Amino acid sequence: MLKFLLWLALVVIVVLGAVLVVRDDPGFLLLRYGDWSLETSLAVGVVAVIVGSLLVMIGFRLLLWLWRLPRAMKRRRQQRRMERARRLTNKGLLDLAEGRFEASEQALLKLIDSVENPLINYLAAARAAQQQGKYDERDEYLKAAHEANPEAEIAIGVTQAELQLAAGQTERALATLTHLRSVAPRHDYVLKLLARVYFQLEEWSKLCELLPEVRKKQLFRSDKLEGIELKAYTGCLNEAARLGGDALDRAWSKIPKAVQSNPELLLRYIDLVERHHQDSRQVEQIVVKAINQEWNPRLVDFYGRLEAADGNAQLATAEKWLQEYGNSAVLLLALGRICKRLGLWGKAQSYLEASIGVQPTAEACLELAELLGSGEIGESDKACDYYNQGLRLCLGGQG
Asked: Do 284 and 314 share a structural domain?
């Protein structure tokens, strides 16, 4: 509109200028064609030409506007439809977040052909369908998402795996994630989901292959990762023990050093070695090495129960720890047990009484009661006192 007004003003100025120029001498203009002629002044002729040109231009623009009108109306309808589709998409996503899954599914799919990015709508509709237990529809939406945007294979696959896991379709999730892993081997979230699937399926050997990378990338909280590692590596050790031969030792050697120091895992490995190898020297070496690296009361208690091939060397090792770590109830109990096996009755009694003095426990009371009631010492009254004290400790009373 502004452009038209500028042109109109320009025409008026030109006309006024022409009138002023020809005011003193209006001139003469004659147009003749065959028998037809037109005679006028120059000023009127100039104005007529200008006005005629302006009318021609306006007519041309009007025809052009009429020519473009259908396309403009179509484009306007498309814009209105896209705007409506955008509002429906927003409503569908909001309904999904608020738990109105059926309404969400309907809103997301109503004008899907007019949505700028239908991938988002199909993925959200798949989630809404799953919440309603409509697994067939869910898979159809995921298939449609892939057809709409084949390049988004990772996004679609991750969504599919998440939904399959949530629905308890673990085997199908494994197939999905295995494919994604081959497509994107460095994708962190795919690795995390695959680790979860192996954990649920108790595929310990395959999970153990992933765990070093999982730990390196810190894909789980440290406390959760420790629990996963403990169960996975324990499962691998159990499987290796059933295979026999040196499979157990090979499985242990593949476990990272940082994880080998876990007391529960170490005790499990020791238990398996005892069951399948019956080699007390090997077990003793493992326990001593672990305790020397990091003090652990559970391993010390196990060491006291262990019947070593050389009891005197075992006693010397435990007494060395006593010098290094001081009076520890569990270490004194272990020393008492070792001395009992060696027949050092007096020394055993001293260690057991010292253990009870540091921290009374039912186990220490029982060991001392058995020692005092034996024929080697024969103090049955004191033995009864320690039996009673141990019983009270077992029942939760004070020693």
From this structure: yes
Residue 38 has pLDDT above 80, yes or no: no
State the pLDDT at residue 399: 42
Strand partners for 40: 29
Q: What beta strand segments (E) does 331-391 contain?
A: none
User: 297: which residues sit within 8 A by CB, 6+ positions away?
Assistant: 328, 330
Does residue 330 sit in the same domain as residue 218?
Answer: no
- Which among 322, 299, 304 is positioned nearest to 363, based on CA atoms? 304
Report the SS3 class of residue 256: coil
Q: Tell me phi and psi for residue 40, to 5 degrees.
A: -160, 175
Coil, strand or helix: which one is 277?
helix
Say if residues 279 and 256 touch (Cβ distance below 8 Å). no
CB 334 within 8 A of CB 304: yes
**CA–CA distance, 211 with 191 (Å, rounded to integer):** 10
* Integer-rounded Cα radius of gyration of the chain: 46
Q: What is the DSSP string of 75-136?
A: HHHHHHHHHHHHHHHHHHHHHHHHT-HHHHHHHHHHTGGG-S-HHHHHHHHHHHHHHTT-HH
Q: Which of 201, 196, 223 is nearest to 211 (CA)?
A: 196
On the question of pLDDT at 398 being above 60, the answer is no
- What's the rounded Cα separation, in Å, for the pair 325 and 328? 7
Could you write out the three-class secondary structure of 298-314?
HHHHHHHHCCCCCHHHH
Q: Give the distance, in angstroms, between the CA of residue 240 and the centroid of all CA atoms in the same chain.
A: 30
Look-up: residue for tokens 């939760």? 396
Range of the domain at 309: 279-399
Calculate the CA dihedral of residues 203, 206, 212, 216 and round it to 10 degrees: -80
Q: Is residue 251 part of a domain?
A: yes
Domain identity same for 365 and 397: yes
Kindly report the pTM of this predicted structure: 0.69
pLDDT above 60: residue 113: yes
CA dihedral defined by 181, 187, 190, 196, rounded to 10 degrees?
A: 110
Is 164 in contact with 173 (CB distance < 8 Å)?
yes
